[in-house]
Design a protein that fits this description.
The chain contains 9 helices and 11 strands. It has 301 residues and is α+β, with helices and mostly antiparallel strands. α1 packs antiparallel against α3, α2 crosses α3 and α3 packs antiparallel against α4.
Length: 301
């Protein structure tokens, strides 16, 4: 849908500031299956992917049922030197913590267990909390952040890479929990794609059209609502403090970009894993790992 930047005040128009470039424009009525983009930087303002709370609740219930199975049952059965090892997600986290890798275990536990559980709990809270008249703002703010940390698919890729590397030294069999984990990953991805937090804000906390002066309108970088701050300088919808722009945001972005470019080469060329087998030491980098996988496993590579 094409939108036009404002040239003159429109008293009854729906004003919107772009959260990316801060351009103010009038936003027409957009249907649930339509998307809207900023006329200046073309950032997406409204997404056409929007599931109802009923469908989201059903998906959350299915995910919750699959979680105990996918987290506790073996994903892969490993036979090494006559020993059988049942590798499950929860067991792997516990084993990493017992071996002293507490930080790594915490990161894996948060991204594969904590964040998905928070996602399901947040959707359930919205369903029950709306009926009970509870405050939904903290959960809506949390859902927007937790979406970025649900990494079940990344862990699945890690399983594939680790299995390919280990199969040279041990025999592998697919565990009973892998089917449940694959289904859980697919359902979570569909939920994340269609979980439109901005539309949920509109559903639970609809706002009136703004008729104030254009220079007083500010966009909230949390719920993306455009409006005039309340008496305490907060967003009228999500109650977070408002600023016209974050100070030195452009300089910080350039600094982060330059630092990432500098670290890109050593991150790909320095070893990320060391394997000792029969007294020999083998180092693997990201680049060498990709080349090794490409010899027989191009899709994973």
């Amino acid at each position: 849908m094409k939108i036009h930047a404002i040239s003159q005040p429109l008293p009854h128009a729906r004003y919107q500031r772009c959260p990316q470039c801060d351009t103010l424009f009038s936003l027409p009525d957009v249907k649930s299956h339509q998307s809207a983009y900023c006329p200046r930087c073309h950032a997406q303002i409204i997404s056409g992917r929007d599931w109802s709370m009923t469908r989201l609740t059903v998906m959350a219930a299915m995910i919750m049922v699959l979680m105990p199975i996918a987290f506790t049952l073996p994903l892969v059965d490993i036979r090494l030197l006559g020993m059988r090892i049942n590798a499950s997600l929860l067991g792997g986290v516990i084993q990493m913590a017992e071996q002293g890798n507490v930080l790594t275990a915490s990161m894996v536990a948060f991204c594969t267990i904590g964040a998905p559980v928070a996602l399901v709990a947040g959707i359930g809270y919205l369903t029950l909390g709306h009926r009970l008249g509870m405050n939904l703002r903290p959960v809506l703010l949390m859902l927007e952040k937790v979406k970025e940390w649900v990494m079940l698919d990344i862990y699945l890729v890690g399983i594939a890479v680790a299995s390919i590397k280990v199969q040279d030294y041990a025999s592998l069999e697919v565990g009973y929990g892998l089917a449940a984990y694959l289904t859980l990953t697919l359902l979570s991805l569909l939920t994340l794609i269609h979980l439109n937090v901005e539309q949920l804000w509109e559903h639970f906390y609809p706002q009136k059209q703004n008729t104030t002066a254009r220079d007083r309108l500010q966009v909230c970088l949390n719920c993306h609502n455009t409006g005039e701050p309340d008496a305490r300088g907060r967003c009228p919808r999500c109650h977070t403090p408002l600023d016209f722009r974050r100070r030195h945001s452009l300089q910080k972005s350039w600094a982060a970009l330059i630092a990432s470019i500098v670290l890109l080469i050593p991150a790909n060329l320095l070893p990320i894993s060391v394997v000792y087998l029969n007294g020999s030491r083998r180092e693997d980098t990201i680049f060498s790992g990709i080349l090794g996988l490409a010899s027989g496993n191009i899709p994973v590579a």
